[in-house]
Design goal:
four-stranded parallel sheet, 321 residues, eight-stranded mixed sheet, 10 helices, alpha/beta
Amino acid sequence: MTTPEIQVLSTGGTIASTDAADGATPTRTGDELVASADLPTDVEISVEQVSQVPGFGMETGIVDDIARRVSDVGTDDVDGFVVTHGTDTMAESAYYLDAGLGPDAPVVFTGAQRRPDEVSADGPANLRTAVAAALHSDVRDAGGVYLAFNQELHAARDVVKSHSHKLETFQSPGKGPVAVRNRAGFQFHRDPGSRSTHVPGLDSDATVATVTSGLGVGGGPVRRVLDGVDGVVVAGTGLGNVTGGLADGIDEALDRDIPVAMVSRCHAGGVNGVYGTAGGATQLFERGVIPAGDLPPWKARLKLMLALAAADRPAGVAEYF
C-alpha cells in the first residue's frame, strides 16, 4: 500500500502570524505550521512557501502561481493539496482557483482566526481538517477546490467569510457545507466536487470595478471608473435593481462596450428580472447587463476578470455567466 502524499502550499495569513510592536505579521513558515499541527504520521507531507502575506494583501498573481504549482505536480505525484491562507480573502482565492483551473486533484484552503501565539489558536485543528479532507476518497475522486474551517468543508464557489473574528466565520449561505467533521470522520451533506463554471482566464490582467447601489446612489460611481476599467460589477439591491441614476451610468458603460455584471448585495439569493421601472433588473438585462446569479460581488468580480481574459469582448463574456 502506497503512502498518501499531500503538498502544503503556504502563503501567510493569521495562521502564520505572530504579534509584534507594530502589529501582527506573517512570520511562521509552512514547515513550522505543519510541525505544530500534529498531522498523521502515515501521510507524506511536502511543503512549499509560495508567499508570506496577510489575507488582505493577497494578489491574484499569487493564486496564479498556486495554479501553476498544482498543474505542474498533478494527481500522478500527490493525492491532494492544502493551501494555508489568510481568512480575509480566502474564499475569493479558492473560488478564483476553482473557476480558473478546475483542478482534478483536490485543493483545500484553510487558515485561522487566531494567531499561533494566542490562547486556543485554531490553526492546527483547521490544518488537520484540511489534510483529512484532501485525503478523503470521495473528495480525491471528485477533485475541485474547497475551504476547510472549524470542522466544516465548504465548496469554493459557495463559501463566504461572514464574521470578522468568530471561529465559525465561514458559511455557505442557502446551501450549507459539503461536509462536517466529527471524531468519527466526515459526514457529507452534499456531493463533493467543483460547483464553479470553468473560465480558463488565469493570469488575467483585466481591471474590474465594483459599484454598489443603495439609497440615493446616482450614476457618478460608475462614470468615475469608466476610463480605467475593462468591466464593472454592480451590487444591486434585492433581485438586482439599482436607482434610476445608477442605471444611467450603467447605460454609459454599455455604450462603451464595457461589460457590466449584476449581482445582489443580499447575503443569499440571486438576481432576477422582475421590475420594469427605471433601474429595475428587467430593463437592465434587456439592455445587456449580465446576470451573475447568486455570486457575491467579490466573486463576480473575479469571474468577470477571468471571462475578460478568456473571451472576445463583450459578447463572449456573457457566455461564461
